[in-house]
Design goal:
Layout (H helix, E strand, L loop, with lengths): L1 H10 L3 H14 L3 H17 L3 H14 L4 H13 L3 H14 L4 H14 L3 H15 L5 H19 L15
Amino acid sequence: LLLARMGHAIHAGQLAVARADVDRLEALAATAREKHARLRDAAGAHLASGATAEAAALFERAILFSPDDPLAMGGLGRSLVGLGRHGRGAQLLQRAVERAPDAYDLVIDLAKVVATKLGDVPAAVARLHGEGRRSAPRGTEDASRGARHHCDHATRRRAAGNPRPARRREVGPA
């Protein structure tokens, strides 16, 4: 019930209510493993809803209970990238990939950050061809091809003298 209420509060932009629900969920957890899981799940919900700063804080709390969890580490990395802390976000994504080489979504996210935010397209492509190919589960070939296309596009853009990616316009309700 608290999880559902927290989710509704996040989507409604009532972050103080969501924060109180997360604190209750953590307090009700009996073990460190449960606390970690609840904090990580809450952080993921915040990140998915665009509450990036809150997600980062919750992922950091989750990591206190399980410092080597690649999902929490990757989530914190994604959150930090969303907050403009690209270098630290890439470091955390790299650590997450090292701990979970089969988590292909982390490999792709890391390659995108390295290519577009840090400007190192060759390193990003190498990651996709190295770690990505080793860990790609069946059915992810299209995702890999899309990420490589993204990196190739960034290379062409830089060669044409335009190092910055074009800004995406969000299309949504008026």
